[in-house]
TrEMBL record:
Keyword S-adenosyl-L-methionine appears in the UniProt entry: no
Lineage start: Eukaryota, Viridiplantae, Streptophyta, Embryophyta, Tracheophyta
GO MF annotations, alphabetized: lipid binding
Residues of the Bifunctional inhibitor/plant lipid transfer protein/seed storage helical domain: 16-106
Keywords, ordered alphabetically: Lipid-binding, Signal, Transport
Signal peptide: 1-26
InterPro entries, alphabetized: Bifunc_inhib/LTP/seed_store, nsLTP2
Name of the molecule in the record: Bifunctional inhibitor/plant lipid transfer protein/seed storage helical domain-containing protein
Native source species: Urochloa decumbens
C-alpha cells in the first residue's frame, strides 16, 4: 500500500478501535490528553493545511478533549513543537475544518472547563465525527452518491449496543444535527446491501430512547 494511503488508514483504524471497544471494558472518553492526541495531529497537520485527515484529527481531539481549548494544550507537546504548529495555527486549522467557527487565539478561551464524560459506552463523539467527515453533510455533493468504505465502517459500527443495551447510533443525533436515526438507517441499508446482501438491512431504531432520554 502506498504511504499516502497508509497514513489515512492508520488514523481510521485508531479511531475505529476507540469507537468499537466493548462497552463493559472501555474507559469513558474523557479529557484532553495531549501526550496521546498530539502525535496524530502533528502527523496529519504538518503541512499546515486543513486537509481531510488533519480535520479528522483536530475534530476528534476537540470532541474528546472538551472543546477547542484542548488544541491549545496540544501545541506545547514536542511533536507539534517540532512541526512548528502553535496554538494559533491549530485553532486556524480547526476553524477552517468547522466552517470558520472557533476562537482566533488561545487567550480567547479563558480557563479550561471540565469536559463532559461520554457514558454511552460507544465513543459517540468519535462516531459522530466520522459520519460528518466521511458520509458528508446532508445535501452536500459527497452525500449524494453511495456511501464510501470509511463511512460504512462508522455506520455499521454504530449498530452495536453500548451502555444499558442502547444501540450506539441512537447517540449520534444528539451530537450531530445532520445525522438523525432515519438517515443513519438509510446509510446502513446501503452499506449492508453493498457488502452483505443477505443481511438484515434495517437498524433497530425502535430501541432508541425518546429524545429526552438519550
Amino acid at each position: 500500500m502506498a504511504p499516502s494511503r497508509l497514513l489515512p488508514c492508520l488514523l481510521l483504524a485508531v479511531l475505529l478501535l476507540l469507537a468499537a471497544a466493548p462497552a463493559g471494558h472501555a474507559a469513558p472518553v474523557h479529557g484532553c490528553q495531549p501526550e496521546v492526541l498530539a502525535p496524530t495531529v502533528a502527523l496529519f497537520c504538518a503541512r499546515g493545511q486543513p486537509a481531510q485527515w488533519c480535520c479528522q484529527a483536530l475534530v476528534h481531539s476537540a470532541s474528546v478533549g472538551g472543546g477547542a481549548r484542548c488544541l491549545c494544550r496540544l501545541a506545547a507537546e514536542d511533536p507539534l513543537v517540532r512541526a512548528r504548529l502553535g496554538g494559533t495555527d491549530l485553532l486556524r486549522l480547526y476553524a477552517a475544518c468547522r466552517g470558520g467557527r472557533a476562537a482566533s487565539t488561545c487567550a480567547d478561551h479563558g480557563g479550561a472547563a471540565e469536559p463532559p464524560v461520554d457514558r454511552s459506552g460507544c465513543a459517540a463523539a468519535v462516531l459522530a465525527d466520522q459520519m460528518e467527515l466521511f458520509c458528508g453533510r446532508r445535501g452536500s455533493s459527497s452525500s449524494s452518491g453511495p456511501p464510501n468504505p470509511p463511512c460504512c465502517e462508522a455506520v455499521v459500527g454504530s449498530a452495536r449496543k453500548g451502555a444499558d443495551g442502547v444501540p450506539c447510533f441512537c447517540h449520534v443525533p444528539v451530537l450531530s444535527s445532520g445525522f438523525d436515526v432515519d438517515r443513519i438507517s438509510s446509510l446502513y441499508a446501503a452499506c449492508v446491501a453493498a457488502s452483505d446482501p443477505g443481511a438484515v438491512p434495517h437498524l433497530a431504531v425502535y430501541m432508541c430512547p425518546s429524545s429526552d432520554g438519550v
